[in-house]
Amino acid sequence: MNLNAIHHIAVICSDKDTALEFYHIKLGFQIIRENYRPERDDWKIDLKLNDDTEIELFIMKDRPARVSDPEANGLRHLAFKVQSVADTVTELEQMGISCEPVRTDTYTGKPMTFFRDPDGLPLEIHE
Questions:
Q1: 38 cis-preceded (ω within 30 degrees of 0)
Q2: What is d(CA 105, CA 91) in angstroms, rounded to the nearest whole number?
Q3: Do 50 and 80 fall within a single domain?
Q4: In the predicted model, is pLDDT for residue 98 greater than 90?
Q5: CATH of the domain at 58
Q6: Within a domain: residue 30?
Q7: Residues 47, 23 contacting (CB under 8 angstroms)
Q8: What is the pLDDT of residues 6-63, one digit of tens each?
Q9: Are 50 and 8 contacting, i.e. CB atoms less than 8 angstroms apart?
Q10: Domain, as residue range, for 90
């Protein structure tokens, strides 16, 4: 087997406009395509950060809320590499996105912190 890279990451969201405001407008992901799927009564929106990183947003009604405490098995969070955690925190907070206090990663020695998407999915920024 030869796995080359992660093709995309899928995220279930509760509201289309809120998800696009967050991922497209605030975080800067570009929309590749938007598809309404009438057989499922949902939206599938493909976004890209760059040539190598894509996120699929599934906008679905009546999904259970994300389990946060205690953490459940499965995807824990998404992490984005940034040039400067401090600068990125400033930008996020200017857009009304709260961040946890910046701390140093025990293993890498690099600054990092977390913020959340509108549905509570933890997102990390890491130098």
A1: no
A2: 21
A3: no
A4: yes
A5: 3.10.180.10
A6: yes
A7: yes
A8: 889 999 999 999 999 999 999 999 999 999 999 999 999 999 999 999 999 999 988 8
A9: no
A10: 76-127
Is there a single domain that holds both residue 5 and residue 54? yes
Q: What angle do CA 121, 126, 127 make, to 5 degrees?
A: 165
Percent of the chain with pLDDT over 90: 80
Tell me the residue type at 109.
Answer: G
pLDDT of res. 25: 97
Best CA proximity match to 42, nearest among 14, 7, 78, 79? 14
Indicate whether 103 belongs to any domain.
yes
Residues 25 and 57 in one domain: yes
Quick one: pLDDT band at residue 64, thresholds 50, 70, 90?
confident
Is the link from the previous residue into 70 a cis peptide, with omega within 30 of 0? Answer: yes
Q: Which amino acid is at 106?
A: T
